[in-house]
Amino acid sequence: MSPRRRKAERLSLDSPNWMPAAEAHRMLTGLLGDPDLAAKDLTAAVADKRLPCMRRAIASHIAPDQDREIVPLSFWDEYEFGFDPVSEKLQIGAKGLAVEFRFRVAFFVWRPALAKLWPALAPSPAPGNRADDRPRRRKPGKPPEHEWPTFVARELIQRALAGKKMPTAPEMLRRCQEVFGWEPDVRQMQKLLKDLLS
Q: What is the CB neighbour count within 10 angstroms for residue 169?
């Protein structure tokens, strides 16, 4: 058994890694800027073994567990993907001609192979997984005596909801003095207000 055939057999035909060829074409068009060029490159990738392709019969009388098969490489000797500018859809044609299949079929490509061929099409990491999303470490030193940053944030929210103008740093220093009997450094207050209001 050839290595290509063994690899094709390892690809589960009901895996969620199969994506519609039309979706792959749309993504590739966005990357390359031309739908015909995207169809050409997609055909080349499935025809030269770099991108596994599956077809699935759409007819309802074919059982779901029997409607899928890996497209044999010999198929691409006669057929190719093409973009129809009238319907704006990806189609299969017999090397430039429209083709009619005995049964309607849908074509799918293997998503991991597509991402390997065109890394720019790979999904970006989930927002929670990026390194810059980690919580920031507090600067070393003595912990703050009062929760004045939280107090200032609440004051700003209350003023915004009431439609009042935003306070200046000296005004907020006076409020901290009234509430805590203590006020932070004016530069700290200015920085906090700048961060909260930007």
A: 18
Q: Is the pLDDT of residue 5 over 70?
A: no
Residues 39, 44: Cα–Cα separation, whole Å:
9
Q: In whole angstroms, what separates CA 46 from the centre of its chain?
A: 23
Q: Evaluate whether 21 touches 108 at the Cβ level (below 8 Å).
A: yes
Per-residue pLDDT at 130: 53
pLDDT category, 4, cuts 50, 70, 90? low
As given in the structure block, the two tokens for residue 195 are 């961060």
Question: Nearest-CA neighbor of 107 among 78, 82, 77?
Answer: 82
- Mean pLDDT within 97-114: 76
Whether the Cβ atoms of residue 92 and residue 81 lie closer than 8 Å to each other: yes
**Whole-angstrom Cα distance, residue 37 to residue 34?**
5
Q: Are 26 and 39 in contact (CB under 8 A)?
A: no
Say how far apart CA 12 and CA 8 lie, in whole Å.
8
Three-state secondary-structure class, residue 192: helix
Which of residues 128 and 143 earns the better pLDDT score? 143
Percent of the chain exceeding pLDDT 90 equals: 23
d(CA 29, CA 40): 11
Alpha carbons 104 and 56: distance in angstroms, whole number? 9
- The one-letter code for the residue type at 40 is K
pTM: 0.57
